[in-house]
């Protein structure tokens, strides 16, 4: 009997030891409540615990570079697609072709399977209607509106050193001006006069506009619509001259720990249930498995600039360096 009890104890220890190793370490650029919702559901369904850290796109790429020789995470979920392209170009991620990738159209995934898109979100302006009314100002409807002197120091946007959202603003203007870099930076200098503060993350400006700390902000429309759903007195307008978009994406980290569980999370994120959860976030999921009737904007009715993700990623450091010299240094 004692021998049997000893064997049972050994078996239980083995089971618990195995379970303790059933974990996946992740970096995410999703907003924290949304990341928690997804990762908690994954753990509930699979028993695999997700140990995650929330970072902006720029912070994630920087951390992956710093940890290149000793990766601390296995998967990066969310984050502007340009960051994932940049991570690929720097040899920080590894290819993986999920059996569920077939449901994501080719234009929304890497042809060599280094990254895959999850959803699209377009750049937009947020206006705190109460603050704007007090100032006698209307919501800006275009890029040339928001650089008007009447908006001087009344707008907030992120810093392109840490935010993929902010770099998307730069590339949107660049492509709007047909890749004329001098016109682009002339515009960015004018925009700088309207900016009172450059925030660390792309969603911060919208949150600060929601509480009236600043009347106007530039961010992604889905973040702004989520604030409105929670009672924020915001109005969302999409630039009439054309707007850019993020393709929030997902990658596996090269030589990351627990690659098997990382692939399980990767596959789960592409399943119908996870895609349905993502569709509730006011975004436009790109997978054919996701419902398409929940988005507050119809991307087919918007003027979208012609983005080139590979070029934008390859030129990010150069363009951000120029922004730092000419604008950030001030």
From TrEMBL:
Keywords: Signal
Keyword Amino-acid biosynthesis set for record: no
Pfam family, one: SBP_bac_6
UniProt xrefs under InterPro entries: Ferric-bd (IPR026045)
Annotated organism of origin: Marinitoga aeolica
PANTHER family in the record: ABC TRANSPORTER SUBSTRATE-BINDING PROTEIN (PTHR30006:SF2), THIAMINE-BINDING PERIPLASMIC PROTEIN-RELATED (PTHR30006)
Signal peptide range: 1-19
Protein's name according to its UniProt entry: ABC transporter substrate-binding protein
